[in-house]
Amino acid sequence: MDFAKLIERVKNILLTPKTEWPVIAAEPETVAGLYKNYILILAAIPAVIGFIQGSLIGTTVPFVNITVKIPVGAGLVQMLLVYGLSLGLIYVLSLIVDALAPNFGGEKSQVQALKVIAYSWTPSWIASILGIIPLLGILAALAALVYCIYLLYLGLPHTMKVPQERSGGYTAVTIILGLVLSIVVGWVAAMFSGAGAYSAAAMQGQLGASGVVAPGKDDTLGQLQAWGQQVEAAGKKVEAAQASGNAEAQAAAVGQMLGAALGGGVQVEALKPDALKPFLPDTLGGWKRTEFSAEQNGAMGMQMSVAKATYAGDGGRALHVEITDVGSAKGLLGLAGLANVQSQRETDDGYEKTWNDNGRLVSEKWDGRAHHGAYSIILGDRFTVEVSGTVDSVDQLKSAVASLDLAGLEALRNQGVKRG
């Protein structure tokens, strides 16, 4: 294993993808060689980081300052499962990309399909290093996802020989399938590691009788294709800044590209903390607010704001409310709707379910034995609102959410949005 070569490839695919893709496409390779020299090493990063975060560092529960850690044994099992399943996911997705190539005017090649998936996945693997820092890890993961889409969009014409004008549709189908397969992988890993389970998501794609994708302006594939084109346009601004030789201009252009791409083609400035405070009133359904905090964080041209509050009730019970403005990542929240994510799971003690309620993604969890639950909702593809706590029934959580000014919050979905 030549680590110097691996590092050079990572650097080139991240910093100069347009010149690196022709080099990658022309290289003689094998499936085994790609796994041994690239995929096996980089795919281990998120699995190991997940183990460190979950079992060694732990996750701090808001408001109560309790750090929860997954037992080391269970953490190791989960790490190995995630690692093994992710390796399989890469291979299965490459087979799908290979099979779809003729539908988009491309050429079938299993090795080239594995190349485009593996190298496009690089930003996600590298960004997972920041997962140890919770909020920064979220921002990095969102940025990495957009850059993965951009790399895939650039790489398909070189590796699979598809016409440039059809790369957008090809990218869109691949992203949808990747999302669905990732959900399945998460479900299987959670089920066998005992960490909870998620059901598979339904996928709504538009395939004609011939199997050729014909995305329209208003359908799922059309929206994803437009997104890919927006990322391409943003990338051209980065190239222009690079040509100028001005380091400050380059940094600003990269930030603008990430912000615009994550925001669905627009730049979004997250709400200031004081703008979120009015949506966490002094009382909530007769419960008195006892704690409040709000903050805004940013990195690489992206911003996110979070406001939290605790409401005290009878018998030492408490409701925890969290409102998040994903700001620069508002475009990505829409992916859940585009992928039509739905799930339902029942146990002897409770249930978990996720569904779409008139355009709003809703999630509900309830543990009957502990009388503890959580109820969350996404507003305007930008704001998430969650209420959790130990209560008599989940209806109390629903009532608490309904008593918040959801319409007023949703009305702010375009505040701070800068177009063009």
Please give a handful of descriptors for the protein shown.
single chain, 420 residues, alpha+beta, two-stranded antiparallel sheet, 13 strands, 52% helix
Give the helix/strand layout:
Blueprint: H1 3-15, H2 17-26, H3 31-42, H4 44-57, E1 59-61, E2 66-68, H5 72-100, H6 110-120, H7 122-127, H8 134-159, H9 167-193, H10 220-244, H11 247-262, E3 267-268, H12 273-276, E4 283-284, E5 287-299, E6 302-312, E7 318-325, H13 330-338, E8 343-346, E9 350-357, E10 360-367, E11 372-379, E12 383-390, H14 394-403, H15 406-410, E13 417-418
Antiparallel strand pairs: 1-2, 3-13, 4-5, 5-6, 6-7, 7-12, 8-9, 9-10, 10-11, 11-12
Helix pairs in contact: 1-2, 2-8, 3-6, 4-5, 5-6, 5-9, 6-8, 8-9, 8-10, 8-11, 9-10, 10-11
Task: Explain this structure.
There is one protein chain. By secondary structure, this protein is α+β, with helices and mostly antiparallel strands. The chain folds into two domains: 203 residues, no CATH class; 146 residues. Helices cover 52% and strands 19% of the residues. The protein contains 15 helices and 13 strands. Strands 4-5-6-7-12-11-10-9-8 form a nine-stranded antiparallel sheet, with helices on both faces. Strands 1-2 form a two-stranded antiparallel ribbon. It has a two-stranded antiparallel ribbon with strand order 3-13. Helix 5 runs antiparallel to helix 9, helix 8 crosses helix 9 and helix 10 packs antiparallel against helix 11. About 7% of the residues have low confidence.
Number of strands: 13
**Morphology:** globular
Question: What is the helix content?
Answer: 40-55%
Q: Beta-sheet strand percentage?
A: 15-25%
Tell me the radius of gyration. 22 Å
Number of helices: 15
The secondary-structure class comes to alpha+beta
Poorly predicted ranges: 191-221
The secondary-structure element order is HHHHEEHHHHHHHEHEEEEHEEEEEHHE
**How many structurally independent domains?**
2
Largest beta sheet: strand ordering? 4-5-6-7-12-11-10-9-8
Give the termini distance in whole angstroms: 45 Å
Mean pLDDT: 76
For the largest beta-sheet, the strand count, sense and barrel status come to: 9 strands, antiparallel
